Amino acid sequence: MKKILPLVMVLLSGMAHAQNGQFLPGQLAVLRAGDGVVNLQLKQAPLFIDQFNPKDSNTAPSCSVSIPTNGANAFFFNGRAATEGLLTRSTDRRLLAFAGYGGVDLLVKSGTPSLLDIQRGFCTVDATGTIQTFLYPAHDVNEKVNPRGVATDGANHFWGCGNAGGTLYFNPAAGKATVQFQPFQNSRAAKIIGGVLYVTLNGPDGKAIDEPAGIYRFTDTSGTAMPLPRQKDAIIDLVVPADEPFTKIAGFDLSPDQTIAYTADTAAGIQKYIKSGGAWKMEYNFAIPQTIPADANHGTGCFGLVVDFSGSAPVIYATTTEGWAGSVNSNRVVRIVDTNATAVVTSLAQAPSDKIAFRGIDFTPETGTLSAAKP
Questions:
Q1: CA–CA separation, 102 and 136 (whole Å)
Q2: Among 137-151, 207-221, 354-368, which is the least confidently predicted range?
Q3: What separation in angstroms does the CA of 183 have from each of 206, 211, 249?
Q4: CA distance 328 to 297
Q5: Is the pLDDT of residue 341 over 80?
Q6: Contact, 252 vs 261, CB < 8 A?
Q7: Is 3 part of any domain?
Q8: Which residues, other chains included, contact 143 with Cβ-Cβ below 8 Å and sequence gap of 6+?
Q9: Closest CA to 188 of 303, 321, 356
């Protein structure tokens, strides 16, 4: 395990970071690829988790935890990949977690990480900045395997999402083997909500298994719900179907009462779904105003997403997908107070360089016991 640095101020590519050793509760945590020096085109980059005030616009992060990319806890993901770098908070709210590659130092094995014979795994960070990594062998060195994200209960039980066998359960205490959910090889995001594991399926991925895009949960072979599946023959059960053309989904969130859902489409923005009369229907889409010229822009949607459902109107936080030269970079963290379909999209933070990308997002980890309200 490693601790973050003592209190020190550094200036890096226009972003001021306070290495203060402690996340504050009720803030936003954003997974960042890049330090402004290493080119994201190299497909391996230094990683950080930045803390932002959810109520302040266009400010520098108040805290930044550096993820070790060399040494015993070395861990990284492909900052250029369109699918990697989702971030979640554990159900007990003590840990942030994300998926990636480890066991080798950054750039020791150059090339596209998903094609390399290196270990995959998960990284967790608590409120004090303590970092742990949990690694397992790539299940097939001859197949491209992207680890995309992870959900955890905070007790070292992990449910990963990814492609080519990347939808899996992993308990490091039980050894290095993973349990791969055979009917669901290719998933985009994972999150535990109300004690139930949900995953998203992207439209193009769904065509490969003849299933529609949307938010899924799991059952056993007899149709009985499996809130937190741990067996390979678990069956997927569609909960929220995605409406066309909004099927390029990644991040998502559900309200505690399971009546409101949001999805992040990497090309279109953020979609709101409402459950009424036992059926889900799409309410509207939030398009994302762009800051990069259309002919140079990588994307016009969102990737990571988390929602604060505690107030009278849900407050959506997301990372955008725009960027220069075919890569997500120079993108933003945005906020939407969902009062209606015309709600304003506000930029909370802007990545200041084409060598920096904001990827996953969630609320900051907490200390102590689980509290009653989110965040």
A1: 9
A2: 137-151
A3: 11, 11, 19
A4: 9
A5: yes
A6: yes
A7: no
A8: 164, 165
A9: 303
What is the separation, in whole angstroms, between the first and last Cα of the chain?
26
pLDDT value, residue 48: 96
* Residue 259 Cα distances to 154, 170, 247, 284, 309, angstroms: 26, 30, 20, 15, 11
Alpha carbon distance 269, 171 (integer Å): 35
Q: What pTM does this model have?
A: 0.92
| Tally: H helices and E strands in the chain | 1, 27
3-state helix, strand, coil in the chain (%, to 5): 5, 40, 55
Shortest CA distance to 242 belongs to which of 208, 195, 205, 194?
Answer: 205
CATH number at residue 61: 2.120.10.30
Say which residue, 8 or 73, is predicted with more confidence. Answer: 73
pLDDT for the residue 232: 87
Of 266, 329, 333, nearest to 302 (Cα)? 266
What is the tens place of the pLDDT at every residue in 74-132? 999 998 888 999 999 999 999 999 999 998 888 887 788 888 888 999 999 999 999 99
Do strands 189-193 and 196-201 pair parallel, antiparallel, or not at all (unpaired)?
antiparallel
Task: Give the start-end residues of each E strand in 39-118.
Answer: 47-52, 63-67, 75-76, 87-89, 95-102
For 5, 67, 149, 219, the CA distances from 106, given in Å and listed in that order, are 19, 11, 19, 39
% of the chain beyond a pLDDT of 70: 91
Indicate whether 63 belongs to any domain: yes
* pLDDT reported for residue 13: 34
Residue 375 located in a structural domain: no
Q: Is residue 368 part of a domain?
A: no
Domain count across the chain: 1
pLDDT for the residue 12: 35
In this prediction, residues 65-77 reach a mean pLDDT of: 90
